[in-house]
TrEMBL record:
Region described as Disordered: spans on this chain: 161-188
Record-annotated HTH merR-type domain positions: 36-100
Segments traversing the membrane: none
Phylogenetic placement of the source organism: Bacteria, Bacillati, Actinomycetota, Actinomycetes, Micrococcales
GO MF annotation terms: DNA binding; DNA-binding transcription factor activity
Presence of keyword Cell cycle: no
Pfam families tied to this protein: MerR_1 (PF13411)
Keywords: DNA-binding
Protein's UniProt name: Transcriptional regulator
């Protein structure tokens, strides 16, 4: 992944005017919910987790029958990966882009616009970088991650969440009635 100029992230106000919310690191989403929010198949989700492209950061699968638990940020990355794939970027280039973002330690993905010419992925952190890239003929399409953030947030607001663990160390499911009944039966 190529990185355009070195403009500080604070200059991002031109691309993203809204402050985005803090993330809850103890609440996550099961695989089917992550698939629905990101617009991908379960097969893609499973493959990307097994190959290390996008692994669940709250709870990985630890064997047969265990449930992966994806964070909001994981689902955001899944949706960005899906958008890049839909525009024709190769999975190899996407892997390079995701690895670069991890290595660079980008704290707030919403501050980035990803641009591509269909072959390479470029990271822009200011409006000037986007303009320079387009004028140079390198940018064919762009993904404003802040906009994707809001889309994922809206979709997930209607879907069930799950807490990583309750006080007793038992997985607690917020939106699953069957799990609540089981938990009540074992507690009482």
């Amino acid at each position: 992944m190529e990185v355009a100029g070195g403009v500080p992230q604070r200059a991002q106000g031109l691309l993203f005017g809204d402050d985005l919310p803090d993330l809850d690191t103890t609440t996550g989403y099961r695989g089917p919910t992550a698939c629905r929010a990101a617009g991908i198949t379960y097969r893609q989700l499973d493959y990307w987790a097994r190959t290390g492209l996008v692994e669940p950061s709250i709870r990985p699968a630890t064997g047969s029958g265990t449930q992966r638990l994806y964070s909001f940020r994981d689902i955001l990355v899944l949706k960005v990966v899906k958008r890049l794939l839909d525009t024709g970027v190769s999975l190899q280039q996407i892997r390079t882009a995701v690895a670069h973002l991890r290595e660079r330690g980008v704290e707030d993905l919403a501050q980035i616009t990803l641009m591509s010419d269909g072959a390479s992925v470029y990271e822009c952190t200011s409006a000037d970088e986007v303009i320079d890239l387009v004028q140079g003929g390198q940018g064919v399409f762009g993904i404003a991650v802040g906009r994707v953030w809001r889309e994922v947030e809206g979709t997930l607001a209607e879907l069930p969440t799950e807490r990583a663990e309750d006080d007793a160390g038992v997985p607690a499911v917020a939106g699953d009635e069957l799990a609540r009944r089981r938990q009540a039966r074992t507690a009482g």
